[in-house]
């Protein structure tokens, strides 16, 4: 399907251990003469695949595949009640298999945790991984202030105060406001996306990557941090993650959501690395 024609939108069924697990909304855009493997884009918390609208436009030579993670956008909730990180990794694996069985993956924030988990288990599905500010805490000093924020966020979630949890886990870490206004597509499912993230995806606080498995996979990892993220826990944890994951570090424009706010600059940087 040539770029500029009607996009391919599908609902992809994912099967878990006990039957149907989710139906994922997938946007597949294929240029007339695609270069390289498919580029699968995995979004983070509180958003859906519309987060990558700008980046996909800035990479016209690549086949770009975006999907709404379970409970987000136009995808279903977990049909079997499984909201675990392993279920999310199965979802990503299903998307990669559906588009050819091997891909370059670009994953942001919580989506990068999903991608790292799958890389631990099924490295053959990856050629390369771009991980944009994954929220991993295992390399931080136990007295780091982020752990106090996480504790307060968990208490807020237990009292069903998701807005307080959102503040503690984002504004306290300088994620900041969007540089450009949100589009209608980004706002369409925003409330649902936020509810899913702050009620179903608290496993993000506890994930510890299997660094030996990731380094041993032979899959190159590009670990990206925003220029404006200096001082956040992402920056405080950068050296640990690069060493542990065997990752190459690169500084991107903007803050935590720089891939959305500066898609042209980010596309140029990762396209060079993905060649």
In short:
The chain has helices at 53-57, 85-98, 110-121, 145-158, 162-169, 184-188, 190-200, 211-216, 233-236, 238-245, 258-261, 263-274; strands at 8-16, 19-29, 39-42, 64-67, 103-108, 126-132, 221-226, 248-252. It is of the alpha/beta class and 275 residues long.
Describe the fold and architecture:
- Helix content is 37%, strand content 19%.
- Helix 2 crosses helix 3 and helix 4 runs antiparallel to helix 5.
- It is of the alpha/beta class and 275 residues long.
- The longest helix has 14 residues.
- It has an eight-stranded mixed β-sheet with strand order 1-2-4-3-5-6-7-8, with helices on both faces.
- It is globular.
- It is built from twelve helices and eight strands.
- The chain has a single domain, classed as Alpha/Beta hydrolase fold, catalytic domain (Rossmann fold), CATH 3.40.50.
């Amino acid at each position: 399907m040539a770029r500029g024609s009607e996009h391919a939108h599908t609902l992809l069924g994912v099967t878990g251990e006990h039957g149907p697990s989710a139906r994922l909304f997938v946007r597949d855009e294929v240029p007339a003469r695609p270069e390289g493997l498919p580029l699968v884009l995995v979004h983070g918390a509180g958003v859906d695949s519309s987060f990558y609208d700008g980046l996909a436009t800035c990479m016209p030579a690549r086949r770009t595949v975006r999907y709404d993670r379970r409970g987000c956008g136009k995808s279903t909730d977990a049909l079997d009640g499984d909201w675990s990180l392993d279920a999310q990794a199965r979802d990503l694996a299903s998307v990669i298999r559906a588009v050819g069985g091997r891909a370059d993956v670009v994953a942001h924030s919580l989506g990068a945790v999903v991608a790292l988990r799958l890389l631990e288990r099924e490295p053959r599905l990856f050629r390369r991984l771009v991980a944009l500010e994954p929220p991993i805490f295992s390399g931080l000093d136990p007295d780091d202030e982020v752990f106090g924020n996480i504790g307060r966020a968990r208490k807020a979630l237990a009292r069903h105060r998701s807005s307080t949890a959102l503040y503690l886990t984002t504004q306290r870490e300088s994620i900041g406001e969007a540089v450009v206004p949100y589009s209608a597509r980004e706002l369409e499912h925003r409330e649902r996306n936020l509810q899913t993230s702050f009620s179903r995806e608290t496993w993000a606080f506890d994930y510890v990557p299997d660094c030996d498995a990731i380094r041993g996979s032979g899959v190159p990892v590009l670990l990206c941090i925003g220029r404006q993220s200096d001082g956040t826990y992402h920056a405080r944890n950068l050296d640990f993650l690069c060493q542990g994951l065997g990752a190459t570090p690169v500084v991107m424009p903007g803050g935590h959501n720089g891939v959305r706010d500066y898609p042209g600059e980010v596309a140029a940087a990762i396209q060079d690395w993905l060649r």
